[in-house]
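Hi Y.,

Following your request, here is the sequence exactly as I used it, all 167 residues.
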Amino acid sequence: MIASDVQLGEGVEIRHPDLVNLYGCDIGDGTKLGTFVEVQKEVQVGRRCKISSHTFICSGVTIEDEVFIGHGVMFTNDLYPRATTAGGRPQTGCDWAQIPTRVRAGASIGSNATILAGVTIGERALIGAGAVVTRDVAPDAIVTGVPARVVGDPRDEARDRATGDGD
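Below is the corresponding structure, written out as tokens. Let me know if you'd prefer a different format.
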């Protein structure tokens, strides 16, 4: 379902419009969305992004231009979620504060990664498949694991390829 309040930029490609759930979000020009993607209200997705199937992007997430998001990536927007209040009644939107998350331009997030609320993923950072990101990731960092830890810098790999030193 694509709700009437969704803003789609020019050339947005949605493989199966009947198999996505988009509401109250802005999707930038040239972005591609896979099957079974949900993008909630108050989400901004930049231009020329690729969001793979089975990904969930909750309210409060901002994704800048040219970001790759793998299959089954999950974002959160509440560090202490509860079904009910201390008094036992079901929680509503008034009972918690949404914590914003930002993915900077050119970053890549591997399949099945989980991004906790409140983090910023830096420009061109690489998040490994299955990583759980619990804190900010510096620009150009490669992080993997649970919790995600820095394991490298993609600029080193590019330099090695250019000079032949990586063999």
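The longest strand covers residues 149-152.

Thanks again,
Q.
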